[in-house]
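Entry 14: structure prediction run for MFS transporter. Input pasted below.
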Amino acid sequence: MNSTIKERLPTHALAILGVTLFYRVATSMGPLAILLTLTEKLSLSIASLALTGWTLAGALSQPLWISVANRAGLQRTLLALGSVSFASHAGIGVVDGALAAVVLSTVAGASLPPVTAQARALLAHILGSSRLRAAFDAEAALASSAFVIAPLIVAVSSLAGKVGPTVGCAILLGAVSLAFGYVGRGIERGSKENSELSKREDDARMGWRTLALIFSGTTAYGMLACVEVATVARVDDRTGTALVLSAWAATSFVGGLCFSRLKNADRLRFALLPVPVAACAIMATFTTSNLGLFSLVLVLSGFAVAPTTALLTSEVARVTPAFQQGKAFGWLQAGSWLGSAAATAVAGSIATRSLSFVLLFAALLASLSVVAIVSCRWRGSGAGEAQGADAARKQ
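Run finished. Output C-alpha cells:
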C-alpha cells in the first residue's frame, strides 16, 4: 500500500485488505492446484469434474456462511470452516480413487470461508462513502495481483511433490481463516445484535437494485472468463498465454491502484464502463489476422477491470441497507463464481467453432453488466448510502 492509501484508510481497513489479498491468492491457487494434482494422479476429466464440484459448492455456500457467522459469531465460524477447509484441501492430494477425489473437492469448496463477502461488509460498516470507494479500489487491485501471485506459489509448492500445491493452498486457507477472525474481532457486532441482524436478513427481501447489481457481477465475471478462454485459444502457446494474461492482470492492478489515490472519481469510473465492451468487439475483429493487436488491446483494457469491479462493489454498498449488506455481498460473490463457471463452459464449446463468437458473447455480457449498473445509479440513491453515512458519522 502506498502512503496516500494509508492516509485515507484506517488501520482496521488496511488489515482487512491485507488478509483479503491472501484469501484471494488461496482461492486463485485452488483451481490450478486441483487440476494439476488430480490430472497427474487420475485424469483430466476427473480433475475437471472435481473442480466443477469445488466451484459450485464454494459459490452456493457463501451466503449460507455469512448468515451462520452473523448468528454464531465470526471467529467461531471461521475457525470451524478453516479447519475443514484445511483438512479437505490437503486431503485432495492424498486420497486415491475418482469418487473420493470429487467428493473431497466438493467438501473443500463448500468449506471455503466467506472472507471476501464478510470483508466487504465490514469495510462498509466502518468506512464512509468516499473512503469506502478507495478501499474497494484497493481491494480490486489486490485481487488482480492475486492472479499473478497464485501461479507462482503453485509452481514453487510443486517442487515439494504431487501434494505440494493442494497442501500449500490448505495451509494458506487455514492461516487466512485464523487471521481474518483475529482482524474482524474488534469490528464484529455483539452476539445479540448478530442474531437480530441475521433474522432481519433472512426475513427481508433484497431490493431490485441490489439484485440487478448481483446480476451485473455475474455477467461481468462471465465476460472475464470468456476473454480468458479466447486468449488461451488464440495465443496457442503456454508461455505466451501466461505472459499476456499476467500483463492483463498487472494492468488491472495498476488501474485499481491509481483510482484508489483519487477522490470523487465516480464519473471517471463510469466513463470506463464501456471499455471492456469495446475491447471485446475489437479483439473479435482481430482474432485471426493480428495477434499483436489482439494482445495489445487485451492488456490495455485491463486498466478498466479493477476500477469497474470496485465501482460495482461500491454500488452494492450504496443501494443496499446496512442490515442486508453481508447477505448481498455473499450473493455477489456467489454470482461472480457461478457466472465465471457457466461462461467458461459456454465459451469452451463455442471456441472450437469461432473465437470471434466467444468475444462477441463476452461483449454482450459486458453490455448487460453496464446496463444494470447504470440503471441502478441513475434511478435514485439507495437506502444503503444514507445508512452508510450515518455509520460513518458515528465512528
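Notes: Confidence is low (pLDDT under 50) at residues 381-395. Will compare against the previous run tomorrow.
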